[in-house]
Structures are given as structure tokens and as C-alpha cells.
Design brief:
mainly beta
């Protein structure tokens, strides 16, 4: 079970990626990436990517964000039937690419 910042239980988690000790995932049919503590299930980081490629420009309601890939020094975001990949920065997460983690 994953609990969001607002106390709500989150379902429909998708596309898991382990990042800096946290389990990060997108929410099916939402443009959000949530990172939770794997032991407590509590959300530690929540990101809104609705501006990265607005849903009304994707052509189909099934063309949703659902790809997260962690590189050595970057994160890539893509989606179902997207013709693009975005290299994103998490400026509020300075330890994400520390070599010690």
C-alpha cells in the first residue's frame, strides 16, 4: 500500500523504478510520478509532469505517461505510444546521483 502526502491510499501504480533508495512509479492515466519509502509505503516525493507534453496534444486518451528510466546521471520520461523521450532533472533531489547511494 502507498500513502500519498494528503493521506489518500494510491492505487493503479505503474512502471516501478528504484531511485536513491525509493520506489518511484507513475500512476496509470495520470501525469504524476510518486516516490515512496519501500519500508513504510509513505510518499516521500511527488512530481506533476502534466506540462511535459499536455494530454490534449497526445491524440488519444491511452497515450499516457508510463515510462521511467534511471541513467547514470539522468532520468528519462516517456509514455505509451509517445514519439518522444524527455530527459528530466529533479532539482530538489540533490542526492539522486551521488555515487555513495
Amino acid at each position: 500500500t502507498v500513502t500519498r502526502f494528503d493521506g489518500e491510499i494510491q492505487d493503479q501504480i505503474n512502471e516501478l523504478e528504484f531511485m536513491d533508495g525509493l520506489v518511484c512509479y507513475n500512476i496509470w492515466h495520470e501525469d504524476e510520478i510518486i516516490c515512496a519509502d519501500p519500508w513504510t509505503g509513505k510518499s516521500v516525493r511527488e512530481y506533476d509532469f502534466s506540462d511535459i507534453w499536455p494530454a490534449n496534444q497526445r491524440g488519444n486518451s491511452e497515450n499516457v505517461l508510463n515510462g521511467i528510466a534511471l541513467g547514470k546521471d539522468h532520468v528519462l520520461i516517456t509514455g505509451k505510444r509517445w514519439d518522444r523521450i524527455y530527459k528530466v532533472a529533479f532539482n530538489d533531489w540533490p542526492t539522486l546521483f551521488d555515487n555513495d547511494n
